[in-house]
């Protein structure tokens, strides 16, 4: 399902954005592997209706990876056993990179980079219990210092499918530039495919591959308002404006299909990104923010773009 010889492109898990609608859109335009939004293992154990709905996949998503976060072995085990019930899930990714305060305070996400033994134990639980084809982990370069080689060497014996590395520490948050040299250092000692992540766009994608020697790229924030970025990276060509309009309307339709009429409201955050920098964008966003009717909203979107 994942051919690393072709340097596959991954959609990064993006809270509030990488839902089934966006994932379905990027799959149409060259994204090779999609990942769900980060899902709390604890919430999954309670089989919360909203959480279970987050697991749904678009028919185009193959392979489809679900990312979970947590810090307790028993809860992680229960979460994995629940995921095992869904045949359409192809892999489980473990989040060890989220820098959000509420996640770190819970000793999850990037907090696990301070306790690599525990991180490995939790991944061992996932590997042992999962019936999925892929098991992977998403990390940062470290918590408050860069230790990419130490982390990767710790993960070497877990038989992981791949390791995605964001080129910053937890302390960096999203400030400064991603450190591709450090990702390369990790790649140099890794026996597992390395996926480079952080500040990747259609202009620098090939340079990042050359600098890091990575086996693939993971694109996150650059895909918001720009889901055609995967096509542009692969083809080296810009997407025509008429095609962009079709993609935006397709995204809107996917939101309505999945969320019903509420999808029009949820799409407003995407409209902000799609319209950024365009003439009369502010007035357009103000108008859209006042419209609840699905058909009228779609008509106004079509007119503007």
Automatic annotation (TrEMBL):
It comes from the Bacteria. The keyword NADP applies. It holds the Pfam family Dus. It is an enzyme of class 1 (oxidoreductase). InterPro entries: Aldolase_TIM, DUS-like_FMN-bd, DUS_fam, tRNA-dHydroUridine_Synthase_C, tRNA_hU_synthase_CS. CDD domains: DUS_like_FMN (cd02801). It catalyses: a 5,6-dihydrouridine in tRNA + NAD(+) = a uridine in tRNA + NADH + H(+); a 5,6-dihydrouridine in tRNA + NADP(+) = a uridine in tRNA + NADPH + H(+). The active site is at residue 98. Keywords: Flavoprotein, FMN, NADP, Nucleotide-binding, Oxidoreductase, RNA-binding, tRNA processing, tRNA-binding. Residues 11-295 form the DUS-like FMN-binding domain. Catalyzes the synthesis of 5,6-dihydrouridine (D), a modified base found in the D-loop of most tRNAs, via the reduction of the C5-C6 double bond in target uridines. FMN binds at residues 67, 138, 166, 220-221. Its cofactor is FMN. Belongs to the dus family. The keyword Thylakoid does not apply. This is tRNA-dihydrouridine synthase. GO terms for molecular function: flavin adenine dinucleotide binding; tRNA binding; tRNA dihydrouridine synthase activity. Its EC number is 1.3.1.-.
């Amino acid at each position: 399902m994942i051919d690393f010889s072709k340097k596959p492109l991954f959609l990064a898990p993006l809270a509030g954005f990488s839902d089934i609608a966006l994932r379905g859109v990027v799959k149409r335009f060259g994204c090779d592997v999609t990942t769900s939004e980060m899902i709390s293992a604890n919430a999954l154990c309670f089989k919360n209706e909203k959480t279970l709905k987050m697991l749904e996949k678009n028919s185009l998503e193959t392979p489809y990876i679900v990312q979970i976060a947590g810090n307790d072995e028993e809860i992680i085990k229960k979460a994995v056993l629940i995921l095992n019930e869904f045949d359409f899930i192809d892999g489980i990714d473990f989040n060890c990179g989220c820098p959000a305060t509420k996640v770190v305070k819970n000793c999850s996400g990037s907090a696990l980079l301070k306790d690599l033994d525990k991180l490995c134990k939790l991944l061992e639980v996932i590997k042992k219990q999962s019936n999925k084809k892929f098991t992977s982990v998403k990390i940062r370069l470290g918590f408050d210092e860069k230790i990419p080689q130490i982390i990767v060497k710790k993960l070497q014996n877990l038989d992981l499918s791949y390791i995605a590395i964001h080129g910053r520490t937890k302390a960096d948050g999203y400030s400064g530039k991603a450190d591709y040299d450090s990702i390369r250092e990790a790649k140099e000692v890794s026996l597992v495919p390395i996926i480079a992540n952080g500040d990747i766009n259609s202009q620098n994608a090939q340079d990042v591959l050359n600098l890091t020697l990575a086996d693939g790229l993971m694109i996150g924030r650059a895909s918001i308002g720009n889901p055609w970025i995967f096509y542009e990276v692969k083809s080296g060509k810009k997407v025509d404006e008429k095609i962009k309009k079709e993609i935006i309307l397709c995204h809107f339709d996917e939101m309505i299909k999945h969320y019903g009429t509420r999808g029009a409201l949820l799409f407003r955050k995407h409209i902000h990104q799609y319209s950024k920098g365009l003439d009369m964008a502010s007035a357009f966003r103000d108008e859209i923010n006042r419209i609840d009717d699905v058909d009228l909203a779609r008509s106004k979107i079509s007119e503007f773009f």
